[in-house]
Design brief:
By secondary structure, this protein is α+β, with helices and mostly antiparallel strands. It has a 5-stranded antiparallel β-sheet. Strand 7 and strand 8 form a beta hairpin.
Amino acid sequence: MRSRSVWLLSALFLLHVQGCFSLSCPRVVAGTVGGSLSVQCHYEEKYKNNRKFLCHQSCGPNQDIVKTIAPEREMRNGRVSIRDDPASLSFTVTLEELRLQDAGTYQCGIDITLSWDATFLVEVRVSPATDPTQSSNPLKTTDTLVPVTTLLPELTLPVYTRPSPPPRSQLSSVHSLKLLLLPVFLKLPLLLGTLGAVLWMKKRLQRAH
């Protein structure tokens, strides 16, 4: 009875190992948060019509994340999709809008009836995205900034010219002339009064004769 159990375990192990050789995938794939990544696996021609799937490392029956139902038809479950391409004997799993919690080990596999599924462990690595607020070409302190005033239309202001003062020599001549004429202006009323008195006396004398 014991030898029969050992034989059964050995047979199951050989079937599992055979399934591993029937499928090949990249061991590690990487992406950044918010991006996407794809895993392309290749299989033997005898599995062209088998269903392909993706699940977590420790998934059990009916715990597939996503699984094909027909060749060349894309199946999607949220951010994960799978598409089988029998012409190239490969299927592709795509993870979109990556998150840090998506990192881990997954199984890409082929559903084989009445036998162990052919599976391949794939490690998914997700790194934080770079800060979008940091520009690849930050502004330096030495960069020339355009002043806001240069963006305003130019205004043409009227130009007022102040008359220049006359030369100093002209000022002196005018001042001297004023000093000479000042006595004349002061005596002019007296002369006019005297002249008026003379004319009045002359007129009265003419009337007396």
